Amino acid sequence: MCSLEKRGRIFILTLTGDGEHRLSPDVIAAVRSAISRAKSEAAADGGRGHAMVTTAEGRFFSNGFDLAWALSTGSPSAARSALKHMVSLFSPLVADFISLPMPTIAAVTGHAAAAGFMLAICHDYVEMRGDRGVIYMSELDKGMPFPPYFMALMRSKITDPKVLREITLQGKKIAAVEAAEKGIIDGVHGSAADTVEAAMRRAEELAARNWNGKVYALIRKGALPEICHAVGLPEETDEDRNRLMSGSKL
């Protein structure tokens, strides 16, 4: 399902295996557990100067929710209930990334579709291979509406309304070079290995800044109020800010 490795101050979360990395309840739970472990280990290290890279093995970064699992539950109504269950389970995972007290970088080494694309843009930065793979929201083609928090995340991360229209109302499949030109991703690289290497370089540069992770998460949440509200992250209070200010360099 996934693995978590620590290299120095960099956590590497990898979706494992050669499949499509469909986001079943078990996969979502495994990823959330890995994130929780990274958060705990970073806190034990002093809570400063860490970063996380998320990547995947094989041809896919993630092809979205596990629709085959939903269909295997039985009747159409049971399948719809199973899909709603995955949608509800994925929302806290989005919240985990938005509130994680360290910079995050997605190394998109293959196709990232639907919830898989959402997984990528949960991160602060997205590096993508240029020789294979697209980003794509398949809901319109499949006749399924977007969960409200999907729209909130896309509006938070894709600020050009014409680009947002292409993704949501045209179901356009976008390769890496075009995605970079449209400001959806941050870098294009020649292969999967090159993409992971670029993500690691960025992670090392960010971790070297030795930022306070709690302050980093607070600022991130302040920059993304719509998605924070959509996934139920509480607003920070003056008390929270004052507590963090007590450890500042002023």
Automatic annotation (TrEMBL):
PANTHER family listed in its UniProt record: ENOYL-COA HYDRATASE-RELATED (PTHR11941), ENOYL-COA HYDRATASE_ISOMERASE FAMILY PROTEIN (PTHR11941:SF75)
One Pfam family here: ECH_1
Catalytic reaction annotation: a (3E)-enoyl-CoA = a 4-saturated (2E)-enoyl-CoA; a (3Z)-enoyl-CoA = a 4-saturated (2E)-enoyl-CoA
GO biological process: fatty acid beta-oxidation
Family listed: Belongs to the enoyl-CoA hydratase/isomerase family.
Keyword Lipid metabolism tagged: yes
Example GO molecular function: delta(3)-delta(2)-enoyl-CoA isomerase activity
Pathway of action: Lipid metabolism; fatty acid beta-oxidation
Coiled coil residues, start to end: none
Enzyme class: isomerase
Stated name of the protein: Delta(3)-Delta(2)-enoyl-CoA isomerase
EC number: 5.3.3.8
Organism name: Vanilla planifolia
Keywords: Lipid metabolism
The keyword Lipid metabolism belongs to this UniProt entry's keyword annotation: yes
Taxonomy, superkingdom: Eukaryota
Assigned GO CC terms: peroxisome
